[in-house]
Amino acid sequence: MTDRTIAVDYLARVEGEGALRVRIHDRSVEEVELKIFEPPRFFEAFLRGRSYLEAPDITARICGICPVAYQMSACHAMERGLGLTVSPAVRALRRLLYCGEWIESHALHVYLLHLPDFLGYPDAIRMAKEHRGAVEKGLALKKVGNAIMSLLGGREIHPVNVRVGGFYRCPSREELETLRPQIVTALGLAEETVRLTAGLPFPSVEEEYEFVSLRHPEEYPMNEGDIVSSRGLRIPVDRFEEEFEEFQVPHSHALHARRRNGGSYLVGSMARYALNRDRLLPKADAIAREVGLEPVVRNPYRSIVVRAVETVQACEDALRILDAYRPPDRPWVEPTGALKPGACVAATEAPRGLLFHRYRLDATGLIQEARIVPPTSQNQKRIEDDVRDVVGRSLDLDEAGLTTECERAIRNHDPCISCATHFLTLDLVRSGGP
Amino acid sequence: MTDPRAGGDSRDGAAAPAVVIGLGTEHRGDDSVGLLVARALRTRLAPPGAVLERSAEGTELLDLWDGRDLVVVVDAVQGGGAPGTVLRFEVGGEPLPAPLSATSTHGISLAQAVALGQTLNRLPRRLVIYGIEASAFAPGSDASPAVAGAVEPVARMVEEEFRRHGGLDRGATPGGPADA
Lengths: 434, 180
What we know:
Largest sheet of chain A: 4 strands, mixed
CATH topology of chain B: Rossmann fold
Number of strands of chain A: 14
Shape of chain B: globular
Distance between the termini of chain A: 10 Å
Radius of gyration of chain B: 15 Å
Number of domains of chain B: 1
Number of helices of chain B: 7
CATH architecture of chain A: Orthogonal Bundle
Helix content of chain A: 40-55%
Strand content of chain B: 15-25%
CATH class of chain B: Alpha Beta
CATH class of chain A: Mainly Alpha
CATH architecture of chain B: 3-Layer(aba) Sandwich
Helix content of chain B: 25-40%
Shape of chain A: globular
Oligomer: heterodimer
Number of strands of chain B: 5
CATH superfamily of chain B: HybD-like
Largest interface: A-B, 38 and 28 residues
């Protein structure tokens, strides 16, 4: 028997960096290990002793791509614990801000990170030489997301305008209206994106996912709702830790997550869509029907179409919010009287999936304990399962081909490893015969 | 030209004013050095919008570059040199030299953003990159002494870039972009 090793030092086109190790013996996949570091663990320690008011800004630093998600989970957790209710206008503005982040994040992944896999290019730069229009479209779409985040957040990447209880300042109706022409354009671009992605060649693969996302009584989920799963689970967010557990694995600094007494699960756009297909707004629903997108997508490669549909949803939602917006009387609310904090728990839908925060405060509002469970940590085990399946199906490929397939399997889930790590390297070890 | 891709901080009309963009991540040791240089320059360069701080996500840079005469980008790099070593490169038609390609990344790195800008003709007229060799990225730490020591020298070099370009004088002109 011969040993064969494939090592790739850099896995491109995922957010941040990490490492993947695959070991194959004869024709069996012995080991798949996704290794990532985990700043959230550091941030949990960093938050201790800080005021509850600082949590949104501090946690927003965890990820350069989805700072809004961290702010939203932190704000909602604190407000639930402190018994604060924000005004409907603030609630709507937060949803609009989140729409901006979804548009920005999905446009980046769909066009610049994921599309090259389908068109056969190693990266967006080489793809841009022959598909300039597609890349320009992606950049234009992403820029509209940035514009929304910039207006409501003060800065494109790390919004600083959000606070517990509301916003430091709320925009006037006129200010918000300046976004309308851009969002109308973005909606059209997003619809084109759905048509473009739906026409891509997809490997015919179906995975048995347990999907997990929020579900809201009326809306496609973002900031509120129960946690539901495709295997019938339905719990309020404060029971998250009863049903889902994080566990240490020797090969990674990051904790992995699984269902208690169960296996891996998947959060993110595929899960949201599968569990909330009936909550799409009319245009998003119509375009999904037009391209024949199945109500539950189990082919991970087709997640690119789901992200495109969610981009339509976010643009459409943003326009509805603009239509109805009236500035609130007060931009934020504060706790009155003595603090009597209960459990400060929330989960919101980051572009990459469920982001859980839990805090314990003392009577002066200082954070005693923080728990942050980012979507990529939750998906790690499931991504390993996908890689295991793809390697098992692709054993006859040469090393380069197999490596490409592994990378694609990871990119399908848009892992935000920057929430968790800095460098992703791929190490493929084969022993036995090919 | 009503180009929808015009720079995010630019105004309509002629070329947008020169900017320096400090790239980096807070609370990640030496990775914050680009931000530190930007902060050192905040009150020293005019107009006020001439200094930007960003976490590195390359595609946003394309929007910030577009239509400008001069852009200076400052970022941490891992090129194998001694921490605090300063590299300067003016972007032309060729790819970034290897040490500057090793900047910290998100999905699209600085080097990829430059390459994308070259492909899409979306570079500023002059793009100057300062890379500061960095080595320590522990979460929660500040920039190491060697790297922090490069902040002021690089800030002075960037000031000099602006001075040669005329940005300092132009920014102070009444009715100029400083009033925006």
